[in-house]
Amino acid sequence: MSTAQQFDRLTVVLVSTRNPLNIGAAARAMSNFGFLRLRVVTPYDAAFREARSAVGASAVLKNAEECASVAEAVADCTLVVGTTAAGHRDLLEPLQELGDAAPLIQNEMQSGRVALLFGSEKRGLTSKEMSHCHCLLRIPTREEHLSMNLGQAVAVCLYEIARQGREPHVDMERVEARATAAEVERMSGVLLETLNASGYVNHPAPVDVEERVRRLLLRMEMRSADTETWLGMLRQILWKLRAGVK
C-alpha cells in the first residue's frame, strides 16, 4: 500500500468549528502532510470553503464533506479517536498522549478507516460527541497552558501520525476488520430498543443511557463479521418481548 493510499484512510473531522479561518488553517496542515479527507459537522460559518487561511489547500476545502452529526461523519470508520486538552474534565474514554496514540492510528490505517475528531474552539468535544470515540488523545502541552489553536493542533497531530513509519508490515490475510461506527451505532439502536421493551430503560432512553450503551459496545471492539450475528440475536429477543412470549 502506498503512503498516499494509507493516508487516504484517515479523515479529519472538525465538529462545530466557530471560525472559518481555523477550518482553513486545518486544511492547510492536512495538505502539508498529505491527509486530504476533511469532514465538518455543523460548522458555525457556511462560508468556510473560501477561507483565506487555506493557503495551497483549496482542494481540501472544496472536497470537504458537510455532515449533520458526528455519527454521520464517522459512520464508515473502524477507529474513532477524539482529541482533548483534558484539563480537569472527567473523561469516560481511555486517554493517551499523542505519541502513544499515533502508532495505533497508523496500524488501523493498514486495514480500516480512522476518524480524528477535533471539537469547537470554545468547548472542545462534548461528552456526547466523545461517546462515539474508541479513545481520546491529548497533545502533551504544559499544565499552565493546555489548549492549542485548532489549526496548530491539527498540524501537530498529523505530523506525529505521518512520522510513525511509512510502510509497516501487516499480514492482511490475518487481519479481521473491526466493526465500523455505523455498524456499532445500528447495534446500539437495537440494543436500546430491546432494553426498552424489557423495561430496563424508559422510552425514549435518556441521553446518558444512550452514551453508556455506545461506550460499552465500543469497548467490546467487535469485528464487522460479528455484528450481524449480534443483531440477529437482539432482534429475536426483541421480537419475543414484543410478542409477549416468555
Main features:
single chain, 246 residues, 10 helices
Describe the overall structure.
- The structure is a single chain.
- By secondary structure, the chain is an alpha/beta fold.
- 43% of the residues lie in helices and 13% in strands.
- It is built from 10 helices and 7 strands.
- It has a 7-stranded parallel sheet.
- Helix 3 links the parallel strand 2 and strand 3.
- Helix 5 crosses helix 7, helix 8 crosses helix 9 and helix 8 runs parallel beside helix 10.
- The chain is globular, with a radius of gyration of 19 Å.
- About 4% of the residues have low confidence.
Strand order of the largest sheet: 3-2-1-6-4-7-5
Strand content: 5-15%
How many whole angstroms does the radius of gyration measure?
19 Å
Instruction: Tell the overall outline.
Output: globular
- Runs with pLDDT <50, length 5+? 167-175
Report the total helices. Answer: 10
The average pLDDT is: 87
Structural class: alpha/beta
| Element-level helix/strand string | HEHEHEHEEHEHEHHHH
Sheet of most strands: 7 strands, parallel
Strand segment count: 7
How helical, in percent, are the residues?
Answer: 40-55%
Distance between the termini: 53 Å
